[in-house]
Write a structure and sequence with these properties.
Elements lengths: L12 E11 L7 E8 L4 E6 L1 H6 L5 E4 L6 E2 L1
Antiparallel strand pairs: 1-2, 1-4, 2-3, 4-5
């Protein structure tokens, strides 16, 4: 079974980027992932679009508001 790493539209959180990675999870499309430590202390791996992935580095803050995509703080 496969787990979607795409943040749900109604989620809201903020956190710090711990790691960046890329992969071809389905064998044909390149996906970009960020490992994020949320303000609650939880660590999650999320899928990011190319613009966000290119603009952040380890240690940068990102925020996800309900109804919007994650953005750099």
């Amino acid at each position: 079974m496969f787990k979607s790493r795409q943040p749900a539209p109604d989620e809201a959180w903020e956190g710090v980027v711990l790691d960046k990675s890329r992969g071809m999870a389905d064998g044909s499309n390149l996906y970009r992932y960020l490992t994020v430590r949320l303000s609650t202390g939880e660590t999650r791996k999320i899928r990011a679009d190319r613009g966000l992935w290119d603009s952040v580095a380890e240690g940068d803050g990102i925020v996800k508001r309900a109804g919007a995509d994650p953005v750099k703080k």
